[in-house]
Amino acid sequence: MHSKGLNIIGVSLDKEASAWKEAIAKDNLSWTQVSNLKFWDEPIAKQYGVESIPATFILDSSGKIVAQDLRGPELRAKILELLAK
Fold first, then answer.
1. Count of other CB atoms within 10 angstroms of residue 35
2. What is the DSSP letter of 84?
């Protein structure tokens, strides 16, 4: 759905760069991945109040959180709804 405007950013709570990069390759993740390798001290996780993983946030084009922790069909439906606007 990238061509329709969806951008995904993965934020890792890994501590070791090698393990993090191996997981990206193993899972064939094609979207942007970021990490400060600070585990639970990850600044982005702290900013969004992440207390457990996985955590999912859908942000609109202004950066406002419009949905959180959706999975499977609910996640897909919400993304399609927002992209249709």
1. 20
2. T
The pair of three-digit structure tokens given for residue 83, joined into one six-digit string? 């992209």
Transcribe 2-71 into DSSP letters.
GGGT---EEE---S-HHHHHHHHHHTT--SEEE--S-GGG-HHHHHTT--SSS--EEE-TTS-EEEES--
12 neighbors 35 (Cβ within 8 angstroms): yes
Alpha-carbon Rg for the chain, nearest whole angstrom, is 14
pLDDT in tens, 46-80: 999 999 999 999 998 888 999 999 999 999 999 99
Domains of the chain: 2-83 (3.40.30.10)
Q: Whose structure tokens read 């922790």?
A: 69
Cα(26)–Cα(2) distance, rounded to whole angstroms? 21
